[in-house]
Write a structure and sequence with these properties.
- The complex is a heterodimer of chains A (164) and B (738).
- Chain A is an alpha+beta fold.
- Chain A has 6 helices and 5 strands; from the N terminus they run ββαβββααααα.
- Chain A has 2 domains: 73 residues, Ubiquitin-like (UB roll); 86 residues, DNA polymerase, domain 1.
- Chain A has a 5-stranded mixed beta sheet with strand order 2-1-5-3-4, sandwiched between helices.
- In chain B, 28% of the residues lie in helices and 22% in strands.
- Chain B is globular.
- The chains are: A alpha+beta (164), B alpha+beta (738).
Chain lengths: 164, 738
Amino acid sequence: MANFKVNGEDKALDIEPDMPLLWALRDELGMTGTKFGCGIASCGACTVHVNGVAVRSCVTPVSAVEGQEITTIEGLASAAAGTAQPVATFDPANSALTAVQQAWIDHQVPQCGYCQSGMIMAVSSMLAQNPNPSDADIDSSITNVCRCGSYPRIKRAIRSLATA
Amino acid sequence: MKINRRRFLLSSAVVGGGVLIGYSATRPSRHRRANEELAAAGENYVTSFLKIDADNTVTVYVPHAEMGQGVHTSLSMMAADELDANWELVNIEQAPATDLFANGDLVTGFAGELGAPSFLAPLISVSAVKIAELGNLQTTGGSSSVRFTGEHSMRYAGAAAREMLIDCAASRWQVPASECTTALSHVHHNASGRSLTYGELAADAALLEPSKEPTLKTREQYNIMGKAISRNDIPAKVDGTAPYGIDANPEGMLYAAIRLAPVFGTKLVSVDAGDVLSRRGIKRIVELEDSVAVVADSYWRAKMALADVVSVFEDSPNASVSTDSIFAQFDASLASGESDEDRELGDSPAAFESASDVIEASYRVPYLAHAPMEPMNCTVHLHEDGTAEVWTSTQDALGIKSRVASILGVSADKTTFHHSYVGGGFGRRLPFTWNVIDHAALIAKEFNVPVKTVLSREDDMQQDYYRPAVASNFRAAFDASGLVRAWENRFTGPIQTPGAAHIPYAIDNQSIRVVDGETHIPIAAWRSVDHSQQTFFTESFIDEVAHRAGKNPYQFRMDLLKDHPRHQRVLQTAAEAAGYGRNLPEGHALGIAVQESFGSVVAEIAEVSMDSNLRPVVHKVTCAIDCGFAVNPDTAASQIESGIIFGLTAAMYGEIKIEGGAVANNNFPDYEMVRMATSPEIDVHILESDNTLGGFGEPATPPLAAAVTNAIYILTGERVRELPIKNHKFQKPSLAQV
């Protein structure tokens, strides 16, 4: 049995220990917000948080997250509501979205949108650790692929969230 | 278009017969049918694209796929504006995949432009006007949704509906229609102070026949078009709820992983599945003509098991084909002297004979994969009662429905297509790029539960329908006074986009000819189609000509564009915005390119430097586009940013390698993408004009490569004539800023 928490709920799955977390989420739990992009941790479409830190779930076997706290895009807003927000002025009580998600709407970031679950998870993790990233920090932290090329808008959205 | 023979036969088995549609989809029979077939109590289709409910909400049915280009919002803006609807009361719905919402209009739009695009070519007979199967098309491609469906259908639907609502109000009030006005989903009779909501009039209006020639608004009358309106698809794309084809999860679904013949066009000979069938979750091994699949209760289990299935495919004479052999074949073809006319002007041979100076150069680009972020997938359920369901992300829902039905041997009328957002198209999900669709249907035919077939990233990289590799040989002739007198271009075909190799420059003698470039590698439309390679070629060589003439590349172009004021305008705008001719940071240079495609004229200026390892760094791209009019300027800007980055990925890294007759690339590490760190600043200038609407999805991609390599030439003195740039080893240190 694989045991871990997803968005605050305990999950117990009778699956192989080497099944990647991505496929446990998508095919076993039916949580399709986390995306399959490359299967080799190259593109980041599958990014989730393990104990609040961005992880590429397509190469993370469920055995490696035994007993851990997983947050997916579906649970990001509720997970954030109980923790420190990257933006002091953002009031999660008045939004079903996090500040990062709202910034994605404000800056009209997504195009096809397929990579954006992973982007938002990666950016949320970065901002939790570094609330005021420089351009160089953004470039080195956010290595996800967006085939539509939403990078300029992602950068604008992140800058709008910086606390400085 | 050279297509693998087996795939082509599959195509022609499904396509055929036909109906002719050549006018606006507001035509009467459709909205009547919509009311009969689709409307629930209290709902009224006023045209087939518009439904108005008693509570005054307007629903716009958009017959195009939303792939992030914002088409659901833009087309709804067009219909709603002509309707004089209150945007706050407008719902946007994906039109169902039925012939009521076919969008064959876009084909006639293309026919009026430069001939039909390649992805539709197999549907169109050589007798030109006879266009088959338009009733079965619901295609999104060719940067066409707004400028054709929007301009030719959605605006007419809105305007016709508005006139019908006015007629109903006028008749109810017993006043002349000319005394009635509309605003914010109401009809007003100002003289008597009376008003009715559209919702109160909709049931009566639905009984009228829409006018085929309603009066459209002029631009100064627009209330909604031209505003930066937030896209309706974005909220679901930030919280994980947006559905894509790959997210289909019907009850009892199984998963298929598939291995297709690595050498295109070869057949499966034998399979040794070993102990695979005894493993957990594995249901069946399915052998198809050109592939083997493992079906399991999870995709991961299927994929892991498939790795241990040994398969043998037949030998093929193409098994010795490589990138090198293909370019050698192209060179032989170019040297053969056998060519077909693309464009001949003046007397090119005479101009070369009398030339004082001749410059020549050879260019090449490789095959490219589309690599949309959402891996190719299709879920099919053949029910025991002879009905079927299909889930997939596609640029042609109606065509996919028909094709799957045909393969399953069921009626298309009994087949339901489930729409989703499309996780990237770029041409990969157009008609005739059907491998995963066909295979999913063939596999699902063996089951009575839904089966989702998924191509892994590696599968899709190796089983795409590629942007063709092309070689192009140029010559230009100067007269004694240094004027360019002749332009000669020989390139390998096929021509997928007529006119892409033509140049706007005033050169009296031109000889542009195409030679055979067919190989066994399947090809298809790739964002901007032939413009992607031809603009790299022509805008690089004109730059070479300018430098040879000792002229400033900007002024040289401006002088030769004297008959193309739109080109001059975008070039001038981009140059001014980019600071052309002003001081740049030390070691930076600006490269220029301009191209018209899909109805828009685009100039791009790339600001580039060379890093300490002599690798180019693109700092900024300034783009000016004359698009006629931008329906949603923010969506338009985002499409331009996207097109530039797509073009930059191709220019810097894009290269599909052929080895042993198959694609050697596997995944993103060896088909690298521009990422955040390599993404330049982008400055977009949208110029409106009196011209008809131009496209946005594709036109920003073509000029990018030449803009970058033209800057690299200024920096290094080295001319990049083969893409991708990453393969070029720059020898010289950076020159001083030019």
